[in-house]
Amino acid sequence: MRRIRPIINQLQNNDGTNLEMLLIGLKLMSLDEKAKEIQHKWNSLLSVHATQPSDNYHMAFPTKLMEKIALLLLKGLEEINIPIMTFKRLEDLDEKSVRHLLNKAWYKF
Questions:
Q1: Contacts for 71-78: CB closer than 8 Å, 24+ residues apart
Q2: From 85's CA, which of 34, 41, 76, 95 has a CA 20 to 30 Å away?
Q3: Would you say residue 108 lies in a domain?
Q4: Residue 12 above 80 pLDDT?
Q5: Is residue 92 part of a domain?
Q6: Residue 69 counted as domain residue
Q7: Is 19:38 a contact under the CB 8 Å cutoff?
Q8: What is the phi/psi pair of residue 91, to 5°?
Q9: Domain that residue 47 falls in
Q10: Which positions ≥6 away from 56 have C-beta within 8 Å?
Q11: Angstrom distance (rounded) from CA 71 to CA 41
Q12: Tell me, what's the pLDDT at 69?
């Protein structure tokens, strides 16, 4: 157990895992250009902070497994009728809706 604990501590705070899942989800929704834009901004941020994933990152979070999880998550959301926000849905929202306002806020901050 002692050998595993240091690896887990290194991985728990890795925002790259969250980002990778987001990018996979965007690609599954055919939003490849948006994924590339976000990836580019992330890479710029990493170059400023000189951050690298731990040596064990890809062993703990294999891309193929993350892709399967993302696909299952999207299918599960559809099956229980939880709407996935799309650009079309955002365009159709009332300008005073919380979703529309939150989306606009992302561009200001």
A1: 71/28, 73/25, 74/25, 74/28, 74/29
A2: 41
A3: no
A4: no
A5: no
A6: yes
A7: yes
A8: -65, -35
A9: 4-81
A10: 7, 10, 11
A11: 24
A12: 93
Position 51 scores a pLDDT of 66
- Is 14 within 8 Å of 54 (Cβ atoms)? yes
| DSSP 8-class letter at 83 | P
Q: In terms of pLDDT, which residue wins out, 29 or 80?
A: 80
Tokens 């400023």, located at residue: 48
Sign of CA dihedral 28, 37, 17, 12: negative
Q: Tokens for 75?
A: 């299918």
In a domain, 25, yes or no: yes
Between 97 and 90, whose confidence is greater?
97
Q: How many domains are there within the chain?
A: 1
- The model's pTM: 0.66
